[in-house]
Write a structure and sequence with these properties.
97 residues; mainly alpha; 0% strand
Length: 97
């Protein structure tokens, strides 16, 4: 595997999984979907990692880490939007009616 091949695999992995991870970050459940997506991405990456040399392996690992950052950033943006919406539309006070 060449470095170009490794970057190509990462690009395809990103295209396939980043949109789903962004969507999963907006869910308020236990993020079972995100876990499944990360495992699927890892399953796709594993055979390529086994054939990669040291440098290409580092590229593949960095690409997987990029998916983690995509999820974390989307989760943070979602939380910020949720908090901002809560400040703009506070729940009614108990005595209001």
């Amino acid at each position: 595997m060449t470095e170009r091949d490794a970057w190509g695999h990462i690009y395809r992995l990103y295209e396939k999984f980043a949109p789903g991870l962004r969507q999963a970050a907006t869910l308020d459940d236990d993020n079972e979907l995100a876990g499944k997506l990360f495992l699927s991405a890892l399953d796709e990456l594993r055979p390529r990692f086994e054939e990669a040399g040291e440098d290409c392996g580092l590229i593949l690992l960095a690409g997987y880490d990029i998916l983690d950052e995509v999820f974390k950033n989307a989760r943070k943006r979602h939380q910020e939007r949720t908090e901002a919406a809560g400040r703009e539309n506070p729940p009614p006070s108990p005595g209001a009616a």
